[in-house]
């Protein structure tokens, strides 16, 4: 495989077919900027065989993680903290010990420029969180796979839990010296620019935005929640998110050219619905209603928090 170069990998997580759409667009964004490294996606049993086939065509490794598999002794302890199920799934990225170093990317990120230099950083390197800069944002982080670290994280999680109910709170507690110990582990914000920053500090975005490497679509700014015209191929972004229109459009461009042609109606959720859409033609009333329903419901199946605690129904109520 021409992409099998060295012991480094980009890693993401998809918990169902709808989240897999984000993972696929992310993977194509990495290919687009000519990364030299492998792509890995962790999936759960919620991903269909049809989607697994499509993921396998883009990612070098598709690894099934079943946190409810009782044959894995580590999983037995999860019964004590079922609310951390998805967080425990993400922690499995530390078990990819065939790699020397990895960069984890949430599936609601998009790579705009080659960022392979991140692999020169050490564990745990991450960018400050825009909401509380003494914490790092866990949407992008550099780490070193290790069974020992994985077991330590599991044990720590069972004792301490997470102060925000997700992986970011847990990882900040575990890597608690991040704010003060080594500035070299503080990634520049351009490696994980939260989309909300374009309006919370617009002058800085205008000054430094051209150097942006990775954008993180947090909150209501997720591309798949923005109105998209299947006839013209144009996304429309309203309100405070207008400054990220170019990035939302890039997401949809990659989706239309590289993801949509391979979708199957055998896929579940939003992926299956979008498979039946003809690009270049208007949506039927039935398709419009189905898509809006799936966008409201499909993305929050399983109470998944790692891509943002959004009330999708409320978001769509505002958009409609």
From TrEMBL:
Transmembrane segments: none annotated. It holds the Pfam family Glyco_transf_8. InterPro entries: Glyco_trans_8 (IPR002495), GNT1/Glycosyltrans_8 (IPR050587), Nucleotide-diphossugar_trans (IPR029044). Its EC number is 2.4.1.186. One of its GO terms (molecular function) is glycogenin glucosyltransferase activity. One of its GO terms (biological process) is glycogen biosynthetic process. It is an enzyme of class 2 (transferase). PANTHER family: GLYCOGENIN SUBFAMILY MEMBER. Belongs to the glycosyltransferase 8 family. Glycogenin subfamily. This is glycogenin glucosyltransferase.
């Amino acid at each position: 495989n021409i992409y099998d170069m060295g012991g480094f990998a980009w890693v993401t997580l998809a918990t169902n077919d709808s989240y897999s759409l984000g993972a696929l667009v992310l993977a194509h964004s990495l290919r687009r900027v000519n990364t030299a490294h492998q792509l890995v996606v962790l999936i759960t049993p919620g991903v269909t065989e049809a989607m697994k086939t499509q993921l396998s065509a883009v990612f070098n490794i598709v690894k099934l993680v079943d946190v409810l598999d009782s044959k894995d002794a580590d999983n037995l302890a999860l019964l004590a903290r079922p609310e951390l199920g998805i967080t425990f799934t993400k922690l499995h990225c530390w078990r990819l010990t065939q790699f020397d170093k990895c960069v984890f990317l949430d599936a609601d990120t998009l790579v705009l420029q080659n960022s392979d230099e991140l692999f020169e950083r050490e564990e745990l390197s991450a960018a400050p969180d825009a909401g509380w800069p003494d914490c790092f944002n866990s949407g992008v982080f550099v780490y070193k796979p290790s069974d020992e670290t994985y077991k330590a994280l599991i044990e720590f999680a069972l004792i301490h839990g997470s102060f925000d109910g997700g992986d970011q709170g847990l990882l900040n507690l575990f890597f608690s010296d991040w704010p003060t110990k080594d500035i070299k582990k503080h990634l520049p914000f351009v490696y994980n620019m939260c989309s909300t920053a374009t309006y919370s500090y617009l002058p800085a975005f205008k000054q430094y935005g051209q150097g942006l490497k990775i954008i993180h679509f947090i909150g209501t700014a997720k591309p798949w929640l923005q109105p998209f015209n299947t006839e013209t191929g144009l996304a429309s972004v309203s309100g405070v998110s207008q400054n990220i229109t170019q990035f939302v459009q890039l997401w949809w461009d990659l989706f239309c050219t590289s993801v949509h042609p391979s979708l199957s109606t055998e896929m579940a959720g939003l992926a299956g619905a979008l498979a039946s859409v003809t690009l270049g033609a208007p949506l039927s009333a039935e398709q419009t209603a189905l898509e809006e329903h799936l966008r409201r419901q499909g993305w929050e199946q399983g109470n998944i928090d790692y891509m943002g605690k959004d009330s999708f129904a409320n978001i769509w109520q505002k958009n409609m």
